[in-house]
Specification:
heterodimer; A: about 290 residues; two-stranded antiparallel sheet; 2 strands; B: about 625 residues; alpha/beta; 14 strands
Chain lengths: ~290, ~625
């Protein structure tokens, strides 16, 4: 049962899943790094991205439109959420931030369940990426290959925004020391809002891109959220490169373990997290002193 | 709120539990709902100790709920174990053991990391239950056929079956649970839990091994969860696999926050609100699946506007209604504004008396050795932060009974030097010898236990607690050591504790306001409490980092007086920028500049030293040399 092409195809699966996890985790980690808020509704953002895209697809039958609608809708939702609720929690303890985002996540999931029901929905992959591709020694679903490419482009864009623009420089400075950025005369609250929007958009984008791979249910974000936590713990909280490295590691662990026995995927993932915590408590690329 | 009259809360709880089966049916409560509320309430007792009292928010309690439940259910169904009560206890022990192992991993980090790790670990338990262990746990089918308990009393046998017949058994379990929880919360361990919640850094610095205490709280929470999980199986006659789901953990967190954290009864109230709203919305209003959305919105609103939940809200309303708040606030403001005018008098009166009895005051580490023997000796102490040399090659020696002052311009490395002495930061090189022992590389906690501690430059108090509670926490470390599991001991029964707290209150001149919350103290009072926290640990060597910082001239005069009285029978090192005060207090003064010892001598020598004058005034020679 375990043969060479099978193994390679699992490696590819791991790459696709890992890329996706990397994108979602970067969203979570830049929000946490800049605002100091761990958004427990991040999984719900991923799910809403999928549903918003699904609705757009039903109307337009265009996958591109679905991707744009899904990302933009979640970005707007993130901005609204930051302005209306999260903003009032910056001065409150971490536990309160966790509680309120956790509660919001439940509200989002239940609203979607109310609107769309619990049965799963499907968004087909775009015509260009349908079917399977021959890689010479094996066949592989085209869309999954495309996912790796699409997510790589998204991560690249995020990288350019974070490391090559003025806004990105402010965001990275904010991750280091947001009080200092504030005293330099930059409106941190506006930056916080934008970062929350971008972070949420990363999850929403991942949600719609993933919709053709795994069918949509209101609970689709819950498992993703847990995997994202592991990614962030492995990679180091607040670290963008850490999220990418952690995402790829987690994706491969899940896929390769699943080849032998899917039920052990989480156990292995957890073992990896424990190992990192014991050897490098601040994550592979995390810096000391951040909590 | 939890400690007024002895056994009042216990008696009220017993009365409430006995009255419930007669009253609840009148307002349409099904017996099964009441039973479920009790199981959730018991589950939540442990969680409230962990989250409400110790400040550790875990999203993974389902792991222990499920473990306890499945161990008990397996024993009772598959293994044919006859005794329900014993099976429940074994399940609880299993959950506590698992909690210990999980705690070792999860408590490596704090805050949001801790929350994320608990979520991940609980998810692993869920998958393990479903697949690798499915032969034992029944996988997605769970374990049906869990029997109900019957208890032989010799003359008769009590059978508990379902509904109201099972209620007395669950109520009894809950009652035992709350009695134990109240004991824990009122014990010295409970006091340290609150200290960890309010300021883990200071809890460590006053000599408590907070990691062990956190692990204790974690295991307690796991034990409660395990027992409640077993009761769930008994209640439903079936152990459901969804005990292990993230939803279980989430529901527990939400119920606790709805009811009110750090109240012990919060989870019970939260569960009552949750389950009755669920029944009401689903059955009466016919909302179907939307009930959870309504509860979610209620929860978010509560977190936003009523941080301490329903019980907290009722408590504030009660205070408002009885005028407690209104009466308290002006009373608190008055002494604060009057303080400077009033206080010098009693202070002046008290200080001669204090000076005579000060040597008998809590300086237990002090032995009557000769004054010339060094208590602290640092050799070649160096601290490097990347390219920055904060301290370089400092040799420093303080004799027993001495009062040493340290001055130096900003950035001279004074605070870094103190941090190295108290082992808050490890030196890059060099050694520190305290009372003849090399303490280099020890933890702050161990060093404090040996009798070396410091008061902070920026106040590090337990902000949510009263003055007396603050000092109690510091005194506990001196009387109980860095870790002790006296979970059920009454805090009043510790010999010497109240005397030490009273003595310290007197020393730092806070006897007038022992029961005031720290948040309501004036700045000068907070500053004195800061010193009091260090004093209450009974140090033989006390370091004070800028005790006069930010004080008005009047407060300075008083604090200098205070420092003088404290210094009787103690060895102290004081950093400050107020040279007049330091020259008045200290016998010898060390001047630091750019991380080095510039000069050391008597106040008179320092005043007349030209290099010191240059360092401070930027003399011509200094500029030329640079």
């Amino acid at each position: 049962m375990i043969n060479w092409p099978n193994f390679v195809s699992q490696l590819f699966n791991g790459l696709a899943l890992g890329a996706l996890l990397a994108l979602i985790s970067s969203g979570l980690t830049i929000i946490y790094g800049t605002l100091g808020v761990l958004n427990l509704a991040h999984g719900a953002m991923f799910m809403i991205g999928g549903y918003a895209g699904y609705v757009a697809f039903e109307y337009t039958h265009s996958f591109t439109a679905a991707v744009i609608a899904g990302s933009l809708f979640v970005m707007v939702l993130g901005v609204v959420m930051e302005r209306v609720i999260i903003r009032h929690f910056y001065q409150r303890p971490h536990e309160d931030q966790l509680l309120v985002t956790f509660g919001l996540g439940i509200c989002f999931v239940e609203i979607v369940r109310l609107l769309f029901g619990s049965q799963s929905q499907m968004v087909p992959p775009p015509p260009l990426f349908q079917g399977i591709t021959s890689l010479g020694f094996m066949f592989y679903p085209t869309y999954r290959l495309a996912v790796v490419g699409i997510v790589a482009v998204a991560l690249g864009t995020l990288f350019i925004v974070l490391y090559r623009t003025r806004l990105g420089m402010i965001v990275r400075a904010g991750i280091e020391d947001s009080v200092m950025v504030d005293s330099l005369g930059i409106n941190v609250y506006r930056v916080f809002m934008i970062v929350f929007g971008i972070g949420a958009m990363a999850a929403g984008f991942a949600g719609i891109v993933n919709a053709p791979v795994v069918s949509l249910t209101p609970g689709v974000g819950d498992d993703i959220l847990v995997e994202t936590f592991v990614v962030v713990v492995i990679g180091g909280v607040g670290s963008f490169p850490g999220a990418i490295l952690g995402g790829l590691i987690a994706g491969e662990i899940i896929s390769v373990t699943s080849m032998f026995n899917p039920s052990y995927a989480y156990v292995m993932l957890f073992a990896a997290m424990t190992l990192v915590l014991v050897l490098r408590p601040h994550g592979l690329l995390g810096t000391q002193g951040r909590e | 709120m939890l400690k007024q009259r002895p056994f009042l809360i216990e008696a009220l709880t017993a009365a409430g539990l006995i009255a419930a089966p007669f009253l609840l049916p009148l307002i349409g409560f099904a017996p099964n709902t009441a039973n479920r509320i009790l199981v959730w309430g018991l589950f939540g007792l442990g969680f409230d100790i962990l989250f409400g009292f110790t400040g550790l928010l875990s999203f993974g309690q389902s792991a222990f709920y499920g473990t306890g439940g499945f161990v008990a259910a397996y024993l009772l169904t598959r293994a044919g174990f006859p005794n329900v009560m014993l099976a429940l206890v074994i399940g609880m022990i299993a959950a506590a053991a698992v909690g210990y192992l999980v705690g070792l991993i999860a408590l490596r980090r704090t805050g949001i990391y801790f929350a994320m790790i608990t979520v991940a670990i609980a998810e692993v338990f869920f998958f393990v239950e479903f697949n690798p262990l499915a032969d034992w746990t029944g996988g997605e089918n769970g374990l049906p056929g869990v029997p109900t308990p019957s208890i032989h009393l010799g003359f008769t046998t009590l059978h508990f079956t379902t509904g109201w017949s099972l209620y007395p058994f669950l109520a009894f379990c809950y009652f035992i649970g709350i009695v134990l929880a109240l004991r824990i919360v009122r014990s010295p361990v409970g006091a340290v839990f609150r200290a960890i919640r309010d300021n883990p850094l200071r809890a460590t610095a006053v000599g408590h091994n907070i990691h062990s205490y956190k692990l204790t709280a974690f295991v307690i929470a796991a034990a409660y969860a395990g027992f409640a999980g077993g009761l769930l199986g008994v209640l439903q006659a079936f152990m459901p696999p969804d005990a292990f789901t993230f939803d279980t953990s989430g529901q527990l967190v939400m119920q606790t926050a709805i009811g009110g954290r750090a109240t012990l009864f919060g989870p019970l109230v939260g569960a009552a609100v949750w389950l009755s709203l669920q029944d009401f919305l689903q059955a009466t209003l016919g909302l179907g699946a939307a009930w959870k959305l309504v509860l979610g919105i209620v929860f978010v609103l509560l977190v936003c506007f009523l941080r301490n939940g329903i019980i907290g809200g009722i408590a504030s309303l009660y205070d408002l209604a009885t005028g407690k708040r209104a009466a308290q606030e002006p009373k608190d403001v008055l002494p604060a504004t009057n303080a400077p005018a009033e206080q010098p008098q009693p202070a002046a009166e008290a200080s001669p008396a204090r000076q005579t009895d000060a040597p008998s005051a809590p300086a237990t580490h002090l032995e009557d050795g000769t004054t010339a023997s060094p208590i602290l000796q640092a050799r070649g102490l160096t601290k490097r932060y990347g390219g920055l040399l904060a301290n370089s090659d400092i040799d420093f020696r303080v004799n027993r009974g001495e009062l040493r002052g340290i001055i130096g311009p900003n950035g001279a490395g004074k605070s870094t030097f103190f941090k190295m002495l108290t082992c808050e930061v490890p030196p890059t090189s060099g050694t520190i010898v305290f009372e003849g022992n090399d303490i280099t590389g020890m933890t702050v906690t161990d060093v404090c236990q040996r009798g070396l501690t410091k008061s902070y430059q920026v106040n590090q108090l337990f902000a949510g607690l009263t003055v007396r509670e603050n000092l109690t926490i510091a005194a506990l470390s001196a009387l109980r050591g860095k870790f002790r599991l006296d979970l059920f001991r009454r805090i009043q029964n510790i010999p010497g504790l109240s005397e030490r707290v009273e003595q310290t209150l007197e020393l730092v001149n806070l006897t007038a306001r022992p029961d005031t919350p720290v948040s309501e103290l004036a700045y000068g009072e907070k500053r004195r409490l800061e010193i009091g926290l260090a004093l209450a640990t009974a140090p033989s060597l006390l370091l004070l980092d800028e005790p006069l910082a930010g004080m008005s001239p009047r407060e300075r005069v008083e604090t200098v007086k205070l420092l003088k009285s404290i210094s009787q029978g103690r060895t102290m090192i004081i950093i400050d920028h107020d040279m007049d005060a330091l020259f008045e207090l200290a016998e010898r003064v060390t001047v630091l500049q750019e991380g080095r010892v510039l000069v050391e001598g008597t106040p008179q020598e320092i005043k007349n030293n030209t290099t010191v004058q240059e360092a401070y005034l930027g003399g011509v020679h200094g500029v030329l040399a640079a």
